[in-house]
Amino acid sequence: MDFCKHEPLDVDEFGRDRRSRPHHRKPYERPNRGQRGHSGGHGGHGGHGGGGHGGGGHGGAGNGSMVDESADLESRLSSLIIKVGDKNAPTLQNNLEALSVVLEKDFTNHETTVLRTLRQCVLELPWKVTVYSTVAGLLNAKNSETGAKVITLMHGVLCKSLIKGDWCSVKVIMRFFALQVATKTISASTLLSMVDTFLKPVAGQTAGVVTAQNSCFVYIAMTTLLWAGQALKELGSGELEARLSVIEQYVDVHGK
Q: Which of 8, 23, 43, 114 is most buried, by CB atoms within 10 Å?
């Protein structure tokens, strides 16, 4: 695709890689708490022997405690992100706001953990994509630099998914970007430029060319527009109608 400087691989009309990898991906692995005891163990060895070695043991125990606290905090942050929105409670909006406050507070020291967990949750918990898009929007509202890092991360994941031909992930990530228009994290024109990249192979003189790959592109573009439909109204009917016209023409040809 143009925005990733790479042409996608061959797929069927549902966006599945023809080389079809297993559908049951390995669930997201939470941080390994088993390492915590290992860190403290090294500190204890320093206490054996003479006084000099004993002092080293105390230092090792102190360092192990700091690592232990950091690992515990990262584990709790990951758990909060993973579990938010599991229950559609009346307090969901308050829970999302509270989570964004916690993440923004600890983002500087635990950026990698927060970004990694958000990425995996979007990809592996697609039924909660609205939850994670809201979290991303709240983070952006509190700190635009944090929001930009989330968007940059997901754009990179999108490009890698295109390169690998992982079309299920491409569909979910485009859905995530569509929801970011409503949160004002990205503009409607930015999203439409991304959609245009998928529609480019079936627009203009190539509109009559029906292939499984083109059908996949049209399907992704169509579902993306559906998730951003309300927000795209701000651009006026002309912008949205232009894309819907391309989709309609392709569907008409496909049905003949």
A: 114
Q: Which of helix, strand or coil describes residue 17?
A: strand
Cα–Cα distance measured from residue 85 to residue 171, given in angstroms and rounded to the nearest whole number: 21
Cα dihedral across residues 17, 21, 23, 28: positive or negative: negative
Q: Are 157 and 205 in contact, with CB atoms under 8 Å apart?
A: no
Q: Greatest CA span in the chain, whole angstroms?
A: 88
DSSP state of 205: G
Distance CA 132, CA 156 (A): 17
Other beta carbons within 10 Å of 255: 7
- Report whether pLDDT(112) > 60: yes
Give the pLDDT of residue 235. Answer: 74
Quickly tell me which residue has 């500087």 as its tokens. Answer: 108
* Euclidean distance between CA atoms 219 and 251, whole angstroms: 10
Which letter does DSSP use for residue 15 in this model? S
Q: Please tell me the predicted confidence (pLDDT) of residue 87.
A: 83
- Can you name the residues that pair with 17 across neighbouring β-strands? 11
SS3 183: coil
Which residue, among 154, 215, 223, 217, has the nearest Cα to 185 in the 3D structure? Answer: 154
DSSP letter for 19, please.
T
Give 243: exposed, middle or buried? Use CB within 10 Å, 0-12, 13-18, 19+.
buried
Write out pLDDT tens, residues 190-238.
999 999 999 998 887 666 678 888 999 999 999 999 999 878 877 776 8
Contact 133, 100 (CB under 8 A): no
Please state, in angstroms and rounded to a whole number, the distance separating the CA atoms of residues 13 and 53: 67
Nearest of 208, 221, 216, 222 to residue 255 by alpha carbon: 208
